[in-house]
Amino acid sequence: MSALSGMNETQLFQLWRNASKMGLTEAEILKMFTEMGLNGSQYLQMKKRFEKKVEETSEADLQEEEENLNEMETDTSFLKSVPTRRKSNVFGIQFFSNAKNTFSPGIKLATPANYVLGPDDQLQLILTGMNESVQLLKINADGFINIKYAGIVQIAGLTIEKAEQLIKRKMSGFYPYIANGETTLTVVLNRYRTIRVAVMGEAYRPGNYQVPGVASLFNVLYLTGGPSEKGSLRNIQIIRAGKKITELDFYQFLLHGAMQENFRFQDQDVIYFPFYNKHVSMSGAVKRPSVYELKDNESLKDLFSIAGGFSENAYQQRLKIYQVGSLQRSIKDLPVSEMGTYLPQNGDSVLVDALNDTYSNKLNIQGAVRVAGDYELTKGLTLKGLIEKAGGVKENAYLNRGYINRLDDQMQKQLIGFDLIEMNKTKELDILLQKNDSVYIPFVDNMKQQQYIQLEGAVKNPGYYEFRKGMLLEDALLIAGGLALDADFRKVEVLRQYKGIVDSLQDKMLNSYMLSVDPSLKKSSKEFFLEEKDKIVVTKILNTESIGTVKVGGEVLHSGNYFLNSRSETAAEVIERAGGLTPFGNIAQVKIYRNGILVGIDLQEEKYRLNANDSIVVPKMEPLVEVDGAVYNHQFVQYESPNLRYYISSSGGLTDKALLKKAYVQYSNGLNKKTRRFLFFRHYPIIKPGSKIIVPSGDGVMNKLITSNNISAVLSSITALVSLIVLLKK
Q1: Which DSSP helix (H) or strand (E) runs through 303?
Q2: Rounded to the nearest 10 degrees, what angle do helices 9-21 and 26-35 cross at?
Q3: Which residues pair with 624 in a beta bridge?
Q4: DSSP 194-252
Q5: Do 296 and 410 share a domain, yes or no?
Q6: DSSP assignment, residue 82?
Q7: DSSP 3-state of 29
Q8: How would you classify the pairing of strands 676-678 and 681-683?
Q9: 694 by DSSP, 3-state: which?
Q10: 3-state secondary structure of 103
Q11: Nearest CA to 365 among 376, 351, 350, 378?
Q12: 491 contacts 516 by C-beta, under 8 angstroms
């Protein structure tokens, strides 16, 4: 069951209003309601209702509604249950921002034995045994209950335990079996009264809070959000009837888990947060850096105890204390031995330095030794002694050269080279080591240039491989996984770097050797030994790969992917292999795509030679013609005639801005044809089923001018033609 199932509209509104007043973002409020069982659309509808209510209702009426709801409900903790988003450097403040802590108030708990009854508490009297009955009795404003047969019993101000004893005595006179134990009386606090607690002083959210009477001190503190940045956590005061009855040091709970469980609020109690007296910052190599509130009598040693003490890398001889003076800041170096007597001042900042990464007696050896790493520098230890500590050198160690990285007394970097072969011969060449020396002995492989060969072409694993002396061509092919299925073993080319060395640019760089090998890579009678940096290229056999496929779809009998039989196969031939066209297909409307781009071609007039990955689409025969552009009606017209003007007329004719002379036709197969002109005659494209006629538009005034110019040009042409005819007749 969702958390919303037990809440009415008024309660939901108050929960949404409190979340908004606390500064939560829209996303955070939505998340809160969705976790309670509301989906996104339901939340938006609810939010619209609440926003309209806020617009139409005064703030005073909204406040009165919240107060009335508090009076009606026993547990109104949901009104304040939204966690406060706070960021603070002061130790303890973040506790009140933790939405997962267990101090949010509730009434689902056993009645404390020290709970003091008062008006509006409701008791349940249960008789079992020889007498069986249940009574629900509410304590009235005068503090008594009216028990059936037993009459009025004054119980306000009594604990639940003492009230049960009094009720048992009163009822024993009317229920004799209670006295001898044959009837058992059980008194249960069925419903708690609601009390008001005021939060004053430097509180984060001061005001009046209505809470269940059973709420503990920590319940209420959590609801209020604790103190502000200026409020005290070490001296929280509870005031009753104008007198301070107790003080709470919240650090005792945070550090030791100590809780004042025996304290219970009464109606009209006041929680007062005074100003803090002393804030001291602790930073550096301590376990819990933060800003801490200290009492007047607490020393620096007490502060370290609160902060958890030194961390593992702390320098524990001396502390730095930064103080705020009357005119400027100052710094104080304090020995750790004086922490117990030093009382920090408000605003002090205590810094614990961390140890640096240097060592007093560390050596390091790396490279071709059996156990590389850090070692202890002992008195008189030499290079030879360190190598012995490291288990000696490995078999592949390069003994002719090594080096020591060292810092001299002036912290200048030095590099000291050595020759282990000469050092073993001459004892005086051994080197006395110093603190932080770093020794490196190289490997033989590091000193040699890497030798390799390269294989490309029709081998299973082309790439670079290590070259070894005495390697044959067949050995290299075997190392590369052998020949591929399409390898031409008769054409294996070896490219070898030209050996001629000159000081100027040369033309010839490689020598080429064309060889053949046995398909099983058996050793040949004519051995070909490889050299470093040889490049081996195995040629592929021609015509071993498929040309590729084309995709055929639409109005064909068998759509699908078809392998090209030859490099000259045409689209018409592939369509024939696909079973030909269905009765609804039209060869004139066939579309061919290459790389996703429509190819403009008419298969009735020319043959189209396909490439791999081409696509053929045979659309369903379209008996319509589309007319678009500068016509009055953009529409489809049933195909009746090859005449362009027929379809323009069927679409309502041309607009004033139409440019008929620039009209063109898009055919379904991707071809386009435009209007052509010879002298003063226009030839319009022939219209076919599935065509699209496009009439461009231009400026109306310019069209009229152009039309007048055209007329003048036509008249001039006619005059010239007539004159020519007259001259010819003469």
Answers
A1: helix 300-306
A2: 140
A3: 638
A4: EEEEEEEESBSS-EEEEEETT--HHHHHHHHT-B-TTB-SS-EEEEETTEEEEEE-HHH
A5: no
A6: S
A7: helix
A8: antiparallel
A9: strand
A10: coil
A11: 376
A12: yes
CA 647 to CA 635: how far, in whole Å? 10
List strands edge to edge, sheet with 183-191. 133-138, 122-129, 183-191
The contacts of residue 422 (CB under 8 Å, 6+ apart) are: 429
Segment holding 383, helix H or strand E = helix 383-389
Q: b/e map of 678-690 (b: 16 or more CB within 10 Å)?
A: eeeeeebbebbbb
- For residue 705, being part of any structural domain is answered with no
pLDDT over 70 at 75, yes or no: no
Range of the domain at 557: 549-618
Question: Cα–Cα distance between 199 and 209 in angstroms, integer?
Answer: 8
Residue where a domain stops, chosen among 276, 297, 319: 276
Residue 569 has pLDDT above 50, yes or no: yes
Per DSSP, 96 falls in state G
The answer to whether 142 touches 131, Cβ cutoff 8 Å, is no
Domain membership of residue 725 (yes or no) is no
pLDDT of 335-362, one tens digit each? 999 999 999 999 999 999 988 777 888 9
Distance CA 598, CA 602 (A): 12
Give the largest CA-CA distance in the chain: 158
Above 50 in pLDDT, residue 504? yes
CA-based nearest residue to 282, from 261, 311, 257: 311
Q: Indicate the pTM of the whole model.
A: 0.45
Residues 99 and 205 in one domain: yes
User: How close are the terminal C-alpha atoms of the chain, in Å?
Assistant: 112
Confidence at residue 662, expressed as pLDDT on a 0 to 100 scale:
85
Q: Using alpha carbons only, how large is the chain's radius of gyration in Å? A: 50
- For residue 51, which amino acid is it? E
State whether 233 and 299 are in the same domain.
no
Number of domains in the chain: 8
Pairing of the two strands 236-240 and 122-129: unpaired
Cβ-contact 496, 511 below 8 angstroms = yes
User: Cα separations (Å) of 609 from 528, 544, 564?
Assistant: 47, 21, 10
Dist CA 34 CA 374 (whole Å): 57
**Are 53 and 7 members of one domain?**
yes
Beta bridge partners of 134: 126
Whether the Cβ atoms of residue 550 and residue 610 lie closer than 8 Å to each other: yes
User: 135 and 155 in one domain?
Assistant: yes
What does the DSSP 8-state code read for residue 715?
H
Q: What is the pLDDT of residue 239?
A: 93
Give the tokens for residue 221. 């503190």
Distances from the Cα of 138 to the Cα of 117, 193, 682, angstroms: 11, 10, 105
